[in-house]
Design brief:
Elements (H helix, E strand, L loop, with lengths): L1 E7 L4 E7 L4 E9 L7 E6 L4 E5 L5 H13 L14 E6 L10 E2 L2 H9 L8 H14 L5 E5 L9 H4 L5 H7 L8 H15 L7 E7 L3 E7 L2 E5 L21 H10 L3 H10 L2 H6 L5 H9 L3 H24 L5 E5 H6 L1 H8 L11 H4 L6 E2 L8 E4 L4 H13 L1
Parallel strand pairs: 1-6, 6-8, 9-12, 12-14
Antiparallel strand pairs: 1-2, 2-3, 3-4, 4-5, 7-8, 9-10, 10-11, 13-14
Bound molecules: adenosine monophosphate (AMP).
């Protein structure tokens, strides 16, 4: 089946047309600065055709029209018409407690996504706009919403509740939701396949280390704990996000710097993490360069980053009463052998040993630990778009 996967932000739209019969990306690209001067359109096919041009897109509907035109164009297209496309899969960041798995979109689903939008005000409105635009322009196709939070909905209350008055959960649904669920699900499934194990008999820790980063404990195919919370700010140290922090730090900064709570949260989201600690960059390639040049703060930041990940791995091994596999994924998890090694140096108490040669041999799917006791350590490149396409097919076939 051919599935168009759509990932909408407030002013951007990323897309991939995927043939799920052979896991091929027929075409992909993005629309940027939608509704802003200088809108830009990028398009690339698997056989090397490319478009990159400034194209006026005053709203998401314009953007979807531009995508459809490119996909069906006589020269650049990869399908003759939309009749060859079977379904559209939409990434939605927050499904709240309402959505425990992907669903076929109808008016009620859109209303329910709107209802949880105040939990993800930066993300959900863009997704809704994109879904509406796609339904208007492709009314005959089934549309499926796939939620970043859904995979984590199997967590028990003891894992997702904060130790604050229970009434805030009852009144406002304040709890840990977790994000990157599509990636955690895909990578934990792949891990079981690579190891030739039944996923319902496996305890896996997935480390999704990208610019945004989260970690999850997946026991017998189900998520039992994850590091992100009500919002994607909690947990690991990230590119620009602080991750876990004593909440009293927020009011302390507010008083000292004469800032509002919202301004401090903005600092914790956009100016903290690796960027804030090093003062150099949020990008790990820049941090590694600084480390190699002898920058002490960059060295300390890498140590702090690795220590935080290792502490979560220890915690999740305890949460599952054991761990069979630890999988690294996303930009840093897939590509940065230095960070993987620094994290794994904290884990020798589990019996496991990283194999330096395997660790340093590229970014492909593979085992990177030595044979012997302890959990197997793997690199498993994530593929959120393919996962969305597969979940879409599952629902519409
Ligand atoms: P993501 O959000 O998954 O795209 O990950 C972004 C992060 O991955 C950035 O910090 C990049 O520095 C890092 N990254 C991506 N590619 C590489 C690479 N080839 N080598 C080292 N780090 C990389």
């Amino acid at each position: 089946m051919k599935v168009l996967v759509i990932n909408c932000g407030s002013s951007s739209l990323k897309y991939q047309l995927i043939d799920t019969d052979n896991d091929t990306v027929l075409a992909k690209g993005l629309c940027e600065r939608i509704g802003i001067d200088g809108s830009n359109f990028e398009y690339k096919t698997d056989d090397g055709k490319k478009i990159s041009r400034l194209t006026e897109m005053k709203d998401h509907k314009d953007a979807v029209s531009v995508v459809i035109s490119a996909l069906t164009d006589a020269d650049t297209g990869v399908v003759r018409s939309l009749d060859e496309v079977d379904a559209v899969g939409h990434r939605v960041v927050h499904g709240g407690e309402h959505f425990k798995k992907a669903v076929v979109v109808d008016d009620e689903v859109i209303k329910a996504i709107e209802d949880v939008s105040d939990l993800a005000p930066l993300h959900n409105p863009g997704a809704i706009t994109g879904i509406r635009a796609c339904r208007d322009l492709m009314p005959s196709l089934p549309h499926v919403a796939v939620f970043d939070t859904a995979f984590h909905q199997t967590m028990e209350q003891e894992a997702y509740l904060y130790a604050i008055p229970y009434e805030y959960y009852e009144k406002y649904k304040i709890r840990r939701y977790g994000f990157h669920g599509t990636s955690h699900e895909y990578v934990s499934d792949r891990t079981a396949k690579i190891l030739g194990r039944d996923k319902t008999q496996l305890k896996t820790i997935v480390c999704h280390l990208g610019n945004g980063a989260s970690i999850s404990a997946v026991k017998n195919g189900k998520c039992v704990d994850t590091s992100m919370g009500l919002t994607p700010l909690e947990g690991l140290i990230m590119g620009t996000r602080s991750g876990d922090i004593d909440p009293a730090v927020i009011t302390y900064i507010m008083e000292k710097e004469n800032l509002t709570g919202k301004e401090v949260i903005d600092i914790l989201n956009k100016k903290s993490g690796v960027l804030g600690m090093t003062g150099i960059s949020s990008d790990f390639r820049d941090i590694l360069k600084a480390v190699n040049e002898g920058n002490e703060r960059a060295k300390m930041t890498l140590k702090a980053y690795s220590l935080r990940v290792a502490k979560y791995i220890g915690a999740y091994a305890a949460a599952m009463n054991g761990v069979d596999a630890i999988s690294f994924t996303a930009g840093i998890g897939e590509n940065n052998s230095v960070v993987r090694k620094m994290i794994c140096e904290h884990l020798t108490f589990l019996g496991t040993r990283i194999d330096d040669e395997k660790n340093e041999s590229g970014s492909d799917e593979r085992i990177i630990s030595k044979e012997g006791p302890g959990p197997v350590i793997l690199v498993v490149p994530t593929n959120e778009e393919l996962s969305i396409a597969m979940q879409t097919v599952e629902l519409v076939k």
